[in-house]
Structure formats: structure tokens, C-alpha cells
Amino acid sequence: MQIAMQIAMRVRALTLPSLPSFAALLALLASVAVVACGGTGPRAARPAAGATPEVAPPASIAAPGSATPATPLAPASPTARRVPVVVLDPGHAVDEAGAAAFGVVEKESNLDFAVRVAGMLRERGIEVILTRTADVRAAAPGEQPTREQGYNGTRLDLQARIDLANAARADVFVSLHSNGAPDPEVRGYEVYYNAARPFANESRTLARLLLDGVSTEMRASGYPAMARGAFDDACLKAFQGRCFPLMLLGPSRVTAREEVYRRGGTPEGLGFAPGKDAITLRPTQMPGALVELLFISSPADVALLRDDGARNAMARGVARGVTDFLAQSAQPVQSKQGG
User: How many domains does the chain have?
Assistant: First the structure.
């Protein structure tokens, strides 16, 4: 999740199909660049970075396998009212690549995870919308992706992801990421939610179910379950002495013209009219969580991220968490197959 932590080291590009030995990875660590998604500590995170025709997963990530889950995913409720809508958000895109090390680039890995999870949820008759299906900025319905870069590009991109989810009247919003830290020994997966929203209890439940789902599927597939926890993102980021939650999960907030300048942006590029002193974030209007699937800065975690079976297990875990949440939700839902 996202403080955009920039850790200056040099990326050594490795082809994902041929994973080096663990010892070789450690030897390369000194020359690896990590653009950290989450920073350090148990609550390390960074700002999370539109829909186009769906594409295949990035070629640099192992293709989805055919492994089956240890136990079936939760069935849709037979007392139906409507098809649930889930928005999956593959974090980052374009110039904001996220964490990068050992040949794994987060924006590519995030999209691959989203494609896998989407397929699993669609098999359950759930409507799934991806905020992006290629390496492009997100775009709200009827709009084109922004060409802005830097702070402006990221801000507009995140707002477009929020607007897309709100326009779809989604029941659930899940942003998919991987983490990064200066310490290569930091490992595991974690989930963030925001406790300051009207639906905070639902978001907290979603976060815990996602965490439990990944742990369940990893253990069932013979992989280590390294759950770091589900955390409130209320003060996940700090800028000039102020706390900020993740933009994708947090409540509405006002951004002043001076703050945009301090962050390296241009007010005009963000839609400030002449003489306008601030803009207001339009927040998500549904329960949501941001999942950090392992640390790209950890050689041991990268070995799992490059293991097709482990990737499928984590994707099944996310799908399990979403379906369990929908099964527990107050409003009954129905699969498209007419369950």
C-alpha cells in the first residue's frame, strides 16, 4: 500500500522463467533497485496507484496454472436479489511502476494477480470490473486515461479508479499490490482498510477475510503462510507532519494549491480553475481493502512471486476472501447463473 518510498539501488533485470538460486539472489541484493510500495515495519505501505478491453496477463509473470483450491469457494446465496459487483484494482501503471527487483516489476505482477482473481470470481457468477487491463492509467467511464506524469498523473489516476468503482456501484473494492522495504528479511502479506469511513466495520471484515483467505490457500498448497496482519491505514502516510490515509480507501479530503506545489505538481493539471484555492477528493463509496501480496524486496518472497503455484494460491485466497465477504454481507446476492 502506499507511501511512495523510493529506495535507491540498481535494478538487475532477470527473466522470470529462470529463477536464480537463493544464494545468487542474495549476492545480487546489493545492486537491486526497489521502488518501495510499502516502506518498512508492520504497517509499511505507499500510495496505491479504467477499463480497456481485457488482455492476457503480462508475459513476464508466470501464466495461471490449473491448480484447484483446497476447499470450494463460498457459494452465492440462493435467496437472491442481484448480481454482486466487485472492482479489482491492479495497483500502479506507466511511469509509477511500484516496487521492482529481481526481474519482478510490481505493476506487471499486480495486473497478473487481478486477471487470475477476476477469472475465479467470474466462475462464481460475480461481475468483475478491472480498473485497468493493460499498462495504462485508469480512466473513469467516458474519459481517456490522463497523459500527465509525476504527482499529477498519480493523483488523476487514483481519482479515476475511485470514480470507476463508484460509477459501477460496486459492492466491494479490492486493490492488489506487493510491498517493498529496505530490509530484505522483511517478508509476508498484509491488508489495509480505513477505519474512518461509514462502512468501516465492513471494510475491516473484508480485510480480515482477505488475509485469512490467502493464509488458508497458501497453507493448503504447501506454501508458508506469512500473514503480517490487517491494519487501519489512518496514518499510513505522513507529509510535512500531517497524517494521510491511502487515497483509494480514505475519506474525502481537500488538497490546497500550495500542497500541490510542494508535492511537485501543477494545480492547472489537476483541474484547478484560475483563482481556485483547493480541490476535493471524491472517495470510494463501498467497503474496500488494499492487499500487499509479499515483498518484492525479499529474495525469498520473490521466489514465491515467481512460482506459478504460489501465485495461484494467493489469487485463490483473495477470491475466497471476497466470496466469503459477499456471503456474509447483509444484502443477499445471486450469481449470474441464477443460483
Answer: 1
